[in-house]
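Quick start: what a row looks like.
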Amino acid sequence: MADNNTEFGSTNDMSLEELREEIESIDHELVELIARRTYVADTIAEVKEERGLPTTDERQEERVMERAGQNAEQFDVDANLVKAIFRLLIELNKVEQRDNR
């Protein structure tokens, strides 16, 4: 990303402070999305418990990881990094699901 013109706009017109404010806003959005994802995962855990299903669904995890890789490629982000983040999210959700059973 040496080029100052990205698909997200030009950085030439933004001050360092404006760029930091943009990062702060993005960080807020990321935490909000993690909270939403966690809420949905908790709801899924409740459904699994009601139906007597196991906490772990390896096929679903594989689908999530595949999607994460595809989304990373779509946005030109390191797929290994994105998959590592999703692996962490999945593992944390599984630990929470087990603790709540």
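That is the whole record. Residues 1-5 have pLDDT under 50 and may be disordered. DSSP finds three helices and two strands in the chain.
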